[in-house]
Specification:
Elements lengths: L2 H4 L23 E2 L6 E2 H11 L8 H15 L11 H5 L1
Antiparallel strand pairs: 1-2
């Protein structure tokens, strides 16, 4: 039995082996969220064309949001273990 007869004998219908980048057919580093199915390198090249933008929140802006939430809620988040500021921002 030659190497060609053994190589890729298993059907690739599910799992990591069945998925590939729709741009370059690369199989590793795949971004599957939102049905993109693009590898991370192709995503970086085409992110602006697709409509993704990089959002950067500075430390000062984060503190402004945090302090405004603190005053409007009249609530001390350090006393409540279930409070999650990131879930409010999202």
């Amino acid at each position: 039995m030659a190497h060609e007869a053994v190589f890729f004998t298993r059907p690739r219908k599910y799992g990591k082996g069945s998925r590939e980048c729709r741009v370059c057919t690369h199989r590793m580093g795949l971004i599957r969220k939102y049905g993109l199915n693009i590898c991370r390198q192709c995503f970086r090249e085409n992110a602006a064309d697709i409509g993704f933008t990089k959002v950067i929140i500075s430390h000062n802006h984060f503190n402004t949001i945090y302090s405004s939430l603190y005053t409007t809620l009249n609530f001390n988040p350090y006393l409540n273990p279930y409070f999650n500021l990131y879930s409010i921002l999202i």
